[in-house]
Amino acid sequence: MRKLIKLKHLYTYLSGSVKLGSLRNMDQLRGSLCINGLSDINTVSEAKEAQLVKKELLVELNPSFSVDKNYEKRWRDGQILNALQPHPNLEESTILHYHGANFFCEFLPPLGNLPSLEILEISWVLGVKKVGVEFLDLQEQTSSSSSFPKLKQLCFKDVQWEEWEGGAEHSEITIMPSLSSLTLWNNLKLKTLPDLLWKTPVSGNQ
């Protein structure tokens, strides 16, 4: 598959014969890229070998992990997702079965610094109990920047978190200024929404 450098669309399931490194030179990939079986990757370096940051024509990335409660795999899932590093032109992403864990703190990956992202869906994320400011990716933001600047649609399905912090302490940063739709489906444990989402229309059976 490494020789298909002009390939423009791809749906792949990772296995012993298909490695993420095969995507390294496919810089003409455009449209959407679906990757299943990410939990079967053995090393974070393999995720980096995909060189997604160079695929500026790719506008949709749909990574999917496996339904596995093995702690070692859950820890590696978080590192793998961060290592994928899509190009800033990414507009849409659906993340399935993500169970990343960082020591005793389980969290969503930092995605707020993707300036072109317009649609984000996260489903079947069973390990996360609390959504904090790390999701907004505020650590490297400046006073003149924003988190999720173009995000219009945000959807969470079948998740189990109970708390959602919205970054109120970062009042100098604009957070999700373009958000017009929030969908919560089977988020029965979530007690309240952060202040920044109070004016956003909410749908679902939350």
From TrEMBL:
Residues 20-103 form the R13L1/DRL21-like LRR repeat region domain. InterPro entries: LRR_dom_sf (IPR032675), LRR_R13L1-DRL21 (IPR056789). Gene3D superfamilies: Ribonuclease Inhibitor. This is PREDICTED: putative disease resistance. It comes from Prunus dulcis. The lineage of its organism: Eukaryota, Viridiplantae, Streptophyta, Embryophyta, Tracheophyta.
